[in-house]
Amino acid sequence: MKKFTRCPTCGASVRTENMSDHTRRVHAESHDSGEVAGAERSPITPTKIGTYDRQYARGYRFVEADEFEQAIRILRTIPKDYPDIADVYSLRAISYTKLKRYDDALIYFEKDVIAAAWEWSHWCNLANSYLIHRRILKAGKCMDRIDRIGYPSDVKDAVDELRRDIAELLEAALSEKPYLDAETYLALEDRFHDGVTYMKKKDWGLAIAEFEYVVSVDQASEKAYGNLGIAYPFKGRFDEAEQCFDKALEINPEYPPAARNLTMLYEVREKASEDPWYLKELEDYMQEVHF
């Protein structure tokens, strides 16, 4: 458990290693004038900070006890203006990861590095999360940031291991697409995942643009064709969707999502022709769009 120290200015309980950040964010005192520097709202009070410290400590204990749902319920009550909000985001992200809610975890790991961009360990966590999502380019950029920030010598082995994991994932990915160089593969991978993100937001136009770009460069991307087959019907482009599923199966006859979705496409097209609201209802119920 992290150690807490009383702030000499307000008396709040603050984790020892975060005292300087607490002083900067909560008190924001100018050394020249003694005036509060440019605060747009009243600083969070010492009493509330103490309350949130206790909530954080409870959440931390739940994480240690593998009670991740309980930890999330406690931690989500702590507001974003809490001085150590980065640690709150980190614990929430770890809890989501343990629950295999990887999309939610990524959201909070990204919030984490925004709140405390100077902390190398947060970038390591984010790199690991990107690896889970196979976002190799973004994971590599996290490692570049870690190198610029610097990290303790006693964690060098862990950082080096993470770097090797990224390199091995890239090597494995390139072995499946030997006709692409590393730079091209990474750029296409990033655009593919951007397309997936747009699909999850039901922004079909932008999703289609990303996947169309991917297949314009990599004509053997069955996943991009498969996702185009999902996105096109929501723009009324059923014939093109069928062609994309056929193309995905031509590339990889054992690609299950394309076969399954091609079968469903015929039913979707028929129902959409009978009920103009059907596609909207289908869109609302869609839970998984990334294969």
Report on the architecture of this protein.
This protein is mainly alpha-helical. It has three domains: 1-116, Tetratricopeptide repeat domain (Serine Threonine Protein Phosphatase 5, Tetratricopeptide repeat), CATH 1.25.40; 117-176, no CATH class; 189-285, Alpha Horseshoe (Serine Threonine Protein Phosphatase 5, Tetratricopeptide repeat), CATH 1.25.40.10. The protein contains 14 helices and two strands. It has helices at residues 19-27, 46-64, 68-75, 85-98, 102-115, 120-132, 136-149, 156-176, 182-200, 204-217, 222-231, 238-251, 256-274, 278-285; strands at 4-6, 13-15. The protein has a two-stranded antiparallel sheet with strand order 1-2. The longest helix is centred in the middle third of the chain and has 21 residues, at 156-176. Mean pLDDT is 86; it is low at 23-41 and 287-291.
Distance between the termini: 40 Å
Mean pLDDT: 86
Low-confidence stretches: 23-41, 287-291
Number of domains: 3
In CATH terms, what is the fold-level topology of the largest domain? Answer: Serine Threonine Protein Phosphatase 5, Tetratricopeptide repeat
Q: Report the β-strand fraction as a percent range.
A: under 5%
What is the oligomeric state here?
single chain
CATH arch. level architecture of the largest domain: Alpha Horseshoe
Proportion in helices: 55-70%
| Major β-sheet profile | 2 strands, antiparallel
Q: What CATH first level of the largest domain would be assigned?
A: Mainly Alpha
Structural class: mainly alpha
CATH superfamily of the largest domain: Tetratricopeptide repeat domain
